[in-house]
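Changelog note: in this version the structure field was regenerated for every chain. One regenerated record is shown below for reference.
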Amino acid sequence: MLEKLKKSKFEKKSYFCKMKKKKSSTPKNNFRQTTIADSALNTLYSQARQFLDAGHLPQAAHAIHRAAALAPKNPEISKLCKHINDKLYSYFSQLIRLHPNEPQHYLDRGELYLRQGTVAKALADYNRAIALLTDTIQEHPRMKKPYFDRAYAYSTLELYTKAVDDYSTLLRLYPNDQPARFNRAIAYYRMGQYPLAVDDLTHCIHLAPNAACYQFRAFAYFSQGLYIDAIDDFTRVLHLSPTLDNSEILYYRGLAFFHTGALPQALDDLTQCLPNLADKDNRVNACLVIDTCRTRLSHN
């Protein structure tokens, strides 16, 4: 029922199929041997240790969870992640005992339970947070944060229609709230309402263009078979974030090129991204498309 917090956005059964939503996924892994000596991992690991030593548990958790996403099988990172999670659980539980009517503490502990795969306890915490936020909304119907937090909880529970309702109410009260509009677009996407997602993301781009908006709009275009529009937005993402790991963007742009018949461009993108693709199915699909492109090009 619940989406995993570390979720990849899409999966494909084959490169000829439409892209489908993925309800759960494994963390990113570059399929290479990772050690604490790796630069990015070492930085995140050191930050986590420093925050932990200083008693800043939320910041320590943020750093170590990012490290764990990059190297989920690294034993040192896994050990520190478990240690921080155990401390964080005690920290949130103590906050809840001190402030039992504060919904944020239940949301935080619920997220931790999700990371640990403890679904029943996560459900209980999210539902408790929703109940408290509903009480606050009834008492203060124009307050922004309760709508936003309740919509987040609904989205985490995959209750996207209710999440959209809350984001829409918030936007009627505060039309320029960009985080609410962006999150509503993501909820629309996960409901399969791709044109509505595109509308919200286009609105966000007009006011404050950024890579995240272009990326999700590209995926929404791709899901509708609007491959030329998807290629344009994937290209903008690559220009706006050239230093990030863009293997997934290259993968889907390569598929979009393939669907439009641009075989040399498809071959370039898929060959470039293949070594770093985290998803095993995507790696298989990339190999299939690469072979198909080479075969077709050799016959021309």
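Spot check on this record: DSSP finds 14 helices and two strands in the chain. The domain at 229-300 is CATH 1.25.40 (Serine Threonine Protein Phosphatase 5, Tetratricopeptide repeat).
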